Structure formats: structure tokens, C-alpha cells
Amino acid sequence: MTRALNPKYTPPSRDTLSNVLIPAWYKVEKANLIMELTTVGKVALTSDSWKSLSQDHYLTVTAHYILEGETRQKVLTTKAVYEAQTGPIVAEEISEVLQEFDIMDKIVAVTIHKARLLCPYTHSVASVANWTAKIRNIVVWMKRSSMAKTVLREKQQVLNLPQHSLILDIKTRWNSLYLMIERFLEQYPAIQAASLDQRLRKPIDRDRLARLTEEDFRKGEDFVHLMRILYRSTLCVSSEKSPTCGQVLPILQKLE
User: Fold this and answer.
1) Per residue in 53-100, pLDDT tens?
2) Distance between CA atoms of 1 and 4, rounded to whole angstroms?
3) Do 83 and 19 touch, CB atoms closer than 8 A?
């Protein structure tokens, strides 16, 4: 397409883009951001550690601040990390970023998204892991089969249930476990009816539902009842377009 628009134009090579143009652009943008932050009085931070598809570890730090009456968000850094992400290590890595952008004295709030530290019990306690694994297996079975999805939708219509898809949780997001269990309980009658449909011909898969006991179901209901207030509290302080820091202490007091 480039040649069709302008045959005389020679686009830069990948090496030029990676090693010359992008670093130069980054240097200018970084300098502009540092200059902009000098005019800001208070900055809030969010930090998230994550893995790439190749299992490399990265840390991202984002600054949130108000300038000229508008809330702005700017990523300060995304960098590879090679040490175990314990609390002291993360604190040291974030401190280096703050010093680099000269905003150490302007920080008023820091939110670190690290599910393993914030809510370890949802994935580590055996009593929870056992019954949630049964539900997860059923959800995987229903989502993997296109016929199962079709049958489930039919049963939802017959039973007058919301035509919602099942949700599969993500290990690093505790709220996704809550959402998976909540949706499973909502759709349980349709899941039961679908499992008895002759078009789903694999008894070994249908047996997964039979392994779910009444006690497991009761634990699911108790879990949703317990975690709903924590989920809603999380939503209250997760807005991207409005200030939420002032809600933290009242919510904590209410939870206590």
C-alpha cells in the first residue's frame, strides 16, 4: 500500500524503528511528562505486575493526577523484572520510578494490583479450592463445546433465565472467581437441564455435574453472599473517571 501511495518513499527498517526512532520519541515524551508533573501538586499511583505469553515478568506503574480540571493517567514505566515480586522488592522498584520522574514527595495514594498478596485465601485454601475446582471443570466443559452452548441457550429460554454466558475465572483476578460462582449459581437449573440433553453425548462430561454435591452448592451460595460486599466495595474505588480515594476509609469502616 505504501508503494502504491508513494513509490519514492522508503519506510524505515525494523532496526531503525526499534533502535533510533522509538527511543528518540520516548525520550521526548518522557521529558514532556516530567515537565508536566512539575506543575502537579498531588499524584496517585497504580502498579500492576504481569506475565507475557512467554512467561516473562513485567511491572507497570501508572500515574493519576488532575491538571487543568481534568483527570489524567500516564504510564510512567513498563519494565522487565527479574526478582520475586515480594512487598519490599515492589516498593523498591516503584521508588526508583518515582525518583526518576521526581514525584516522590507528591504521592498521596498507591494501589498495587497483586491478587496473591491482597486476597490469597481464594486460591490457596484447600477447602475453597476443592469445590471451586468442580464448578470450574463444569464451566470449562460447557464453554469448550459449541453444542453445549447452543443447548444451554435453549434451556435458558425454556426456564426463563437470563441468557448469560458462563464465566471462567482468571487466577490473578480474585473477583473473576466470585463472578464465575455467581453466574454458575444463576444458571444452575439451565446447566442441569442441558446436561440431560441427548445431544450432549459424553457421559463422562455429564458426570462432572453429578460430582457437585449439595454441600458444594451451599458453599457456593455462602461464598457469593460473603464476597458480594467485597466485590461491590472494589467497584466503588475502581472508577477511572472520578475520584474515589475519599471513599476508601468509609468503606473500610463499614466492612469492619
Assistant:
1) 566 788 899 999 999 888 899 999 988 887 776 777 888 888 899 999
2) 5
3) no
> Would you say the pTM of this structure is higher than 0.90?
no
Tens-place pLDDT, residues 210-235:
677 888 889 999 999 999 998 999 88
Which of 93, 119, 224, 220 has its CA nearest to residue 172? Answer: 119
* Structure-block grid coordinates of residue 16: 531503525
For the chain, give the secondary structure using H, E and C: CHHHHCCCCCCCCHHHHHHHHHHHHHHHHHHHHHHHHCCCCCEEEEEEEEECCCCCEEEEEEEEEEECCEEEEEEEEEEECCCCCCHHHHHHHHHHHHHHCCCHHHEEEEEEECHHHHCCHHHHCHHHHHHHHHHHHHHHHHHHCHHHHHHHHHHHHHCCCCCCCCCCCECCEHHHHHHHHHHHHHCHHHHHHHHCCCCCCCHHHHHHHHCCCHHHHHHHHHHHHHHHHHHHHHHHCCCCCCCCHHHHHHHHHHHC
Residue 179 reports pLDDT greater than 80: yes
Handedness of CA 248, 249, 254, 256 (dihedral sign): positive
What nine digits make up the cell of 17?
A: 524503528
Residue at grid coordinates 498495587? 112
Q: Give which of 232, 152, 166 is closest to 196, Cα–Cα.
A: 152
Q: What is the chain's length? A: 256
Do 66 and 79 touch, CB atoms closer than 8 A?
Answer: no
